[in-house]
Amino acid sequence: MDKDQITGKFDQVAGKLKEKFGEAVGNDNLANSGAAQQVKGAAKETWGKVKDVAGEAHDTASTNAATEGNFMKQRSEDAAHDIREKVTSTAQNLKDKIGHKLDDIKHDLSHDHDDA
């Protein structure tokens, strides 16, 4: 609970007492002052609640952003891994194809040499 909420509640109670006392003794200024203090207390209490909710919203948003950031980081790392796998796989396939072609050329050359 925020300190504004506590002091707001206190101001409302004190204002209510002041209003009732002013009415009891016939002092309109005191009664009006009590009513004004109640309004001030209600505003303070509400302001305290607003700050609490805003703080909770901030904390939730921060947590969600951190979670989303971790998710995005993981997706990025996964994508980078996948790309590395594709590049190395493609390089290996290309190396194998070239090796087979070179073997075919060697084979053809050795047959041409045998025929001569």
How would you describe this protein?
The chain has 116 residues and is mainly alpha-helical. The chain has one domain. It is rod-shaped and about 135 Å long. It starts with a helix and ends with a helix.
Structural class: mainly alpha
Order of helices and strands: HH
> Span from first to last CA?
100 Å
Beta strand %: under 5%
Mean of all residue-level pLDDT scores: 89
Secondary-structure map:
Layout: H1 3-25, H2 28-115
Helix pairs in contact: 1-2
Descriptive labels:
single chain; rod-shaped; 116 residues; 2 helices; mainly alpha
Overview in brief:
This protein has 116 residues and is mainly α. It contains 2 helices and no strands. The mean pLDDT is 89.
